[in-house]
From TrEMBL:
Gene: rib4
Native species: Malassezia restricta (strain ATCC 96810 / NBRC 103918 / CBS 7877)
Record CDD domains: Lumazine_synthase-I
Pfam families assigned: DMRL_synthase
Protein name, entry field: 6,7-dimethyl-8-ribityllumazine synthase
Residues forming coiled coils: none
Length: 180
């Protein structure tokens, strides 16, 4: 069998392919979900905007405000443990873990990013509860502000708007397992 591109119409102009595909328009059963948000307290201005964006998208998806549990941890390093504790304590259907790590002049950035992100994936796989990665890893303050939708030079886009939607979509994929 030959593979080819015949029959495909490809755009003649180059456009950006970066960014999410459109999310589903509606989420039946979203009003029954309990969603958690665990956020770091470092880089508060950025975190506050991301939490607000996440809450807006949860509301738009149909999640009731009283069905959202919010907790904070000192920094992104503590997100995996804070997320695990929320899953156990709140019996949530999904968690959005929000942090912001801005690169400095030492290796601290790499260690925090690498290990906190691996930890969040481990929590998700071990608990079978979707954990949405809401950790910005920015090279400077301007990048972080733009990705929170509050940039100084250009406003950018608030990624929290996708994270809430992703939490609802993933929570509805399969029922979560019964806890012993």
């Amino acid at each position: 069998m030959a593979w080819g591109l015949s029959g495909l119409s490809l755009p003649l102009t180059m456009s950006s392919i970066k960014g999410p595909a459109p999310a589903p328009e509606s989420f039946p059963r979203a009003e029954k979900l309990k969603i958690g948000i665990v956020h770091a307290r470092w880089n508060k201005e950025v975190i506050d905007a991301l939490v607000t964006g996440t809450l807006e998208s949860l509301e738009k998806a149909g999640v009731k405000a009283e069905q959202v549990a919010i907790d904070s941890v000192p920094g992104s390093w503590e997100l995996p443990m804070g997320t695990l504790k929320m899953i156990k304590r709140e019996n949530v259907d999904a968690v959005v873990s929000i942090g912001c790590v801005i690169k400095g002049s030492t290796m601290h950035f790499e260690y925090i990013c690498d290990n906190s992100l691996k930890g969040l994936m481990r929590v998700s796989l071990d608990t079978q509860v979707p954990v949405i990665l809401g950790v910005l890893t920015a090279l400077d303050e301007d990048q972080a502000l733009e990705r929170a939708g509050i940039g100084r030079k250009k406003p950018g886009h608030n990624h929290g708007l996708e994270w809430g939607t992703a939490a609802v979509e993933m929570a509805l994929k399969e029922p979560k397992p019964e806890t012993p």
